[in-house]
Design a protein that fits this description.
Elements (H helix, E strand, L loop, with lengths): L5 H6 L4 H4 L12 H9 L20 H18 L10 H14 L13 E2 L4 E3 L12 E3 L5 H4 L10 E4 L1 H11 L6 E3 L5 E4 L2 E7 L7 E6 L5 E4 L7 H4 L2 H5 L4 E4 L13 H18 L3 E7 L5 H11 L3 E2 L2 H9 L3 H4 L2 E2 L7 E5 L5 H9 L7 E7 L18 E3 L2 E6 L7 H11 L3 E4 L6 H16 L1
Parallel strand pairs: 2-3, 3-4, 4-5, 9-10, 10-18, 11-14, 11-15, 12-13, 15-17
Antiparallel strand pairs: 1-2, 6-7, 7-8, 8-9, 16-17
Helix pairs in contact: 10-11
The structure holds zinc ion.
Zinc ion binds next to loops.
Length: 450
Amino acid sequence: MENFREDELLLDNNNMNDSVSENLDENGFPSLDSAKSFSSDFYSSGTNWSCLVTENAESSEEKKKKNKKMKQTDLFQMWGFKKPDTSSASTSKKIQMKTDVGFPSQQRRVCPFYKKIPGTSFTVDAFRFGLIEGCSAYFLSHFHYDHYGGLSKGWSHGSIYCTPLTARLLRMCLSVNPTFIYPLELDVEHNIEGVKVTMLEANHCPGAALTHFRLIDGRCYLHTGDFRASKLMQSHPLLASHRVNLLYLDTTYCNPKYRFPSKQDVLHFVVKIARQTLKKQPKTLIIVGAYSIGKECVYLAISDALGVKIHTNASRRRVLQSFGWPELSGKLCSHGKDTPLHILPLSSLRHETLKKYLDTFAYEYTTLLAFRPTGWTYSETLGNQLDLIRPTSKGNITIYGVPYSEHSSFFELREFVQFLKPDKIIPTVNVGNAANRDKMQSYFREWMKS
Ligand SMILES: [Zn+2]
């Protein structure tokens, strides 16, 4: 299901190994085996859109196509949004022919409308659909699997636009052919097929961007990708002074039950716990769980506060080095014995696994303190009160789940929407269920009224 998010997936249950996608290694990066299987598994990977696109058993391919289109039109109508005119008939025809030659159409998935930018031939985070009819530019918001899924070494369906950091990761981790990659510097207006495109910092993982489109007729569309809305974002000239007509919104936490503290508050809490623990037991090994990219600030905060280096395995070090952040690169070290701060895959954050890990450093450390940062570590009663967080302890192993989120809370979403006052909002997450969609639309209506 597209509603799959890496952090949701990982924290829905405690059995981390069961949750990691088969295409990714324990660090959340594409595994070598999966790189090979990407092409064979191209059209069956990832999302099940069946709830948005009705499959039918009719044998005629034309009827099938027609019905899928009708279903999408219904959604456009339901959400009060007209279907975009994606391209001229001749372009469609040309691309359709190529599609028919290259791939058996019964294996194709239809790109849902909310991944298409109306009035353009652009899509955002729509790689898993292969060649999309009429699409001339494929935008990638950030390097998380649920957004780049479908991209591989063999990608040849069109130009990929993303930030320079994401571009580096595409080349390094997926071996995507560089001739297809067009890095777009943040905060610079780029002209792509007559559309003015600007990437803005998304306050999500490294390289993540909001994409702002200004069409020839002056209409402005903002696609948030995954983001955590902030006050700083509101001061960006593009958002402060231009009306956004259409907002594609990361609705991961679009439910009032999701109240969590600011990132800064969580970092203070983590540092406080680390210091308290070390005061009691100086021979403590500190572990931060991490999956894929993102949440780097958690271990950077501990590293800064304690004045220690950061140890992690070679594959993660390589990825972290590629960010080009001197303050991070300079702190990485390859030997676990050289620092009491280690990064491990989230799948390792279990008492038994951590106990074995601690045993390998028995000469240096006697206890272990681990942090599992995620937006999903929340409880209705906890709210913003971090001091109410209770760790799980077993022997000399203590694990804290901390609500460090790189997505907007419900109230941050509301504030962002009320600031932007867009004409229309299209949710991009948790949309596979009609009740969810209705609920979100009712929140949006409420927010726009006030
Ligand atoms: Zn993400």
